[in-house]
Amino acid sequence: MWIHPFVDGNGRTARLALDGAFASMKMSGYGLWNISQGLAKNSDEYKKYLAHADMPKQGEKIFKYLLLSGECVRGKIPEIIGMKERTASRVISELLKRNFIVS
Question: Has residue 40 been placed in a domain?
Fold first, then answer.
């Protein structure tokens, strides 16, 4: 999912859109669990993750580039994400380790 109506709020907007879609589909069992009810059960943890989500975005430049182009030459990555080669290499290693991208 790639929703960006404004800088922060990406996840909140996505959850609201999904919640609205489920409600409009009149899915059986929808009222048993919904976004608001789920968040209310563990609001402290939700707020912790929400604060983390509002941190400056890291790696977003490379994801957008890959989404639009499909692939990228590894040597071009430092330029795309605006980092030095050594730092970009660490970012790419972490993204590969987490299976967010493939080489």
Answer: yes
pLDDT of residue 16: 75
For residue 86, count other CB atoms closer than 10 A to its CB.
8
The pTM of this model reads: 0.44
Instruction: State the CB neighbour count (10 A cutoff) for residue 43.
Output: 10
d(CA 8, CA 55): 9
Stretches in the chain below the pLDDT threshold 50 = 1
One-letter identity of residue 86: R
Please, what is the end-to-end C-alpha distance for the chain in angstroms?
A: 22
Tens-digit pLDDT profile for residues 27-51 = 766 665 666 666 667 778 777 776 7
Q: Is 51 helix (H, G, I), strand (E, B) or coil?
A: helix
Residue ranges making up the domain that contains 45: 10-53
Residues 6+ away with beta carbon under 8 Å from 63:
100
